[in-house]
Amino acid sequence: MKSLSILAGMFLSIMLLFGLAGCDRMMTSRHAQLVRDADTKSAQGDFLRAINLYEAALDDSPHCAEVHYKLALLYDDKMKDALNALHHFKRYLVLSPNGAHASDVRNFMKHDEIALVTSLSGDSVVTRAEAARLRNENLSLRKELDERSGKQRIAPDKPQTAESQKVEAQKPGGRSYVVQSGDTLVSISRKFYKSSARWEKILNANKESIHNPENLKVGQSLIIP
Fold it and tell me: May I ask the CATH class of domain 26-148?
């Protein structure tokens, strides 16, 4: 009788383990499907739906760091919502402090903190000394990113698309880009260099035509060094 009880207990334990494993597979599969659907919506320009799907996939486990990164970029580049972008950038660093995007995330956060303070309190909040300090920190971050990437330059070698037709040869070592609605120096830097760290390089190359770095004019032609 005692042997039967032991066997029954073992059987129930095995069934419980299989049930938990099956549940875990279902959760993993659901997470992956939500992320795929969100990626599709984002590519289609349905950013609000993409955000909802990404947020539904979050469970604050380490594998969700990439989802927080995608959410932060959407809020930053597409929704112009620095507050929510900062939240998800911070969550990425909590879950993956040494992740592949960690250096970029820290740099994005500095830019968003300035944008948030400026939008809430006006440009006068950022003093010249503070602006100089932040500029020097950005230069240091850019140098670090350049050294890590081996100072690789991205050269367009694909057939022209609707997006690439906006970029023309300006001169050896330079290109021309026409500002689109919603563009910022950070988003343009990401577009050309796959990193926001070079936004100041674009600003310096166009300092005579850019009067307000936080408010680019649609249709304006910029030189991309």
Answer: mainly alpha
Which residue, among 135, 213, 139, 138, has the nearest Cα to 179 in the 3D structure?
A: 213
Residue 72 and residue 109: Cα distance in Å, rounded? Answer: 10
Phi and psi torsions of 171, nearest 5°: -170, 170
C-alpha 156/C-alpha 60 separation (Å) is: 37
**Domain segments of the chain as ranges:** 26-148, 164-224
Say how far apart CA 156 and CA 164 lie, in whole Å.
9
pLDDT, position 131: 57
Is domain 164-224 in CATH 3.40.50.150, yes or no?
no
Taking all residues of the chain, what is their mean pLDDT, rounded to a whole number?
74
- In whole angstroms, how large is the CA radius of gyration of the chain? 23
pTM of the model as a whole: 0.51
Phi, psi for residue 174 in degrees, rounded to 5: -140, 155
